[in-house]
Design brief:
By secondary structure, this protein is an alpha+beta fold. A three-stranded antiparallel β-sheet has the order 1-3-2. The longest helix has 18 residues. This is Helix-turn-helix transcriptional regulator. One of its GO terms (molecular function) is DNA binding. Keywords: DNA-binding, Transcription, Transcription regulation.
Amino acid sequence: MSQSTPEECVASWCADDDWCAVTCTAHLIGKKWHPVIVHRLLERGPLGFNALKDDIDAVSSTVLSDSLEDLEETGLVDREIVSEKPFRVAYSLTERGESLESVIDAMDAWGADYLEESSGC
């Protein structure tokens, strides 16, 4: 599994500005389904693909598969083969993925406040 290097995480136009860390975080979890996947794995622990798909019903199988692959490549999610026949895998958060808990919790709290105040999203 390859993890993103700082050069891959931070855009070239960032130029070591003080907001580069925000850019890096957005790069890692900024895609639509990434924070949702991390949220579900934080809440429920390791899940098989179908269980995760059922838990995030609005995402297509292709998008979920691509998102899990992205999260694996960045070192946030681990994929473990549970059985060969029938073939089953379980997805879990790595230690780095688990360290996103406060970020995901903050996103959840802010989003709930925003939705309550403005009926946005």
